[in-house]
Amino acid sequence: LTPRLCGSMGGAASLALPVGKGPHGVGCADAMVGHARQGLFLRLFYPCVPRAGAERPLWIPRYQYCGGLADFTQRSRRWCAPLLSVAVGSCRVPVSWNGPFKPCSRGYPLIIFSHGLGAFRTLYSSVCSELASWGFVVAALEHDHSASATYFCTADAGREEWIPYHPVPPGQKEFHFRNKQVHQRAEECVRALRLFEDVSSGKSVPNVLQQDFDLSELKGSVDLTKVAVMGHSFGGATAVLALVKEPGFSCAVALDAWMFPLENALYPEVPKPVLFINTEKFQTPESIAKMKRLSSRNSQTKIITILGSVHQSQTDFTFLTGKLINRIFSMRGTLDPYKGLDITSRAALAFLQRHLNLEAEFHQWDNLLEGIGDSVVPEAPFCRSNL
Question: Where is the active site (predicted)?
Fold first, then answer.
């Protein structure tokens, strides 16, 4: 499988997303449940039966997301959206679109994934497909209002109704606005777990998108005793909060968590272990202090930092090359992006084996959890953040 390369304006941009290194082929499908804003919208990554010539999904599935990214980065929609569309609009993810699900009588462990502020469900395809290739079902949610754009399908004829990104309203304190959002996002993670419970119990859960993928195929193949929640940035904070709201989550993996939206009263309530995988250039001493509040209460909570990485290093944007696009999103650290993904996914797999009681060989990467290895250190290096 060779990743699709994309030409672009502004200096040969290309997006070559990596193929999962695990033993399973990876399938991918979108699912939308419910016709209202209270529904759920997610992209599934799952072990699949490989098929020759399988279709690959678009990385950015609609032009509206390019406009949303322009809005979120406070760039002009008039030039930024078309530029993004030309640069990356034809890029595809190296997975099988609606590929046949590979049943598993033992049941695959489940990861609910929460995206960062201004992102959406497809921008973490590299880490989600990597985890799926090692035998996980990964459900990447798309959150209302804190995504750069999203939509739901109305009950009448399934018309798409788009919801734009909501910035903090003038005169409102950012903490109160974001705190409300992080609670809404954590509730959506809990609802996603309920969705898988419904599917596992044999309830009919129609996919509004009327695609070739039927959620009932998952019945009997997801182990609901082995469920983790994971996210990046705002999604990292969402994952921590989801542990408080839902006992069904056994642990959380927080990629460069943006701790700001969480209220202080919450920290004593976090009952389960968290793996914080930070980048070198994003965190503040205040944010690290909040993480340490959790690690001081739970010896299984770990904090590591990947050297040579920036906040966008944990998104698919890190695999974009091209001077102009790079300038818009400042997405490259000095660390090779493929190496960064290896460290992130292997640390996550070692942590998940430990706390989901998996029968796997992921403990071979246990050293990473102590911050031991090339380009990784324990806790946080002292550096000035760009926050």
Answer: 233, 256, 311
Considering the candidates 133, 221, 233, 287, report the single residue annotated as catalytic: 233
For residue 311, indicate whether it is catalytic.
yes
The CA distance from 190 to 7, in Å, is 40
Identify the active-site residue in 311, 313, 345, 375: 311
Residue 299 lies in a domain: yes
Q: Which domain holds residue 238?
A: 26-57+92-378
**DSSP 8-state symbol, 92:** B
Show the tokens assigned to 111. Answer: 């990861």
The total number of structural domains in the chain stands at 1
> Do the domain assignments include residue 323?
yes
* Residue 24 appears among annotated catalytic residues: no
**In the numeric block, which tokens belong to residue 239?**
């994952």
Report, as ranges of residue numbers, the positions in the chain whose pLDDT lies below 70: 1-14, 35-37, 157-158, 321-331, 381-387
pTM value is 0.93
Residue given tokens 């997801």 in the structure block: 222
Distance CA 49, CA 75 (A): 42
Residue 168: per-residue pLDDT: 92
Coil, strand, or helix at residue 277?
strand
Residues 252 and 238 sit within 8 Å (Cβ to Cβ) = no
Report yes or no on 319 lying in a domain: yes
For the chain, how big is the Rg over CA atoms in Å?
19
Reading the block at residue 60, the tokens are 């950015």
Beta pairing class for 108-114 and 274-279: unpaired
Alpha carbons 214 and 204: distance in angstroms, whole number: 10
- Contact (Cβ atoms closer than 8 angstroms) between residue 110 and residue 46: no
pLDDT at 130: 98
Residue 65 covered by a domain: no
Q: Is 256 a catalytic residue?
A: yes
Which of 30, 71, 144, 256 is labelled catalytic?
256
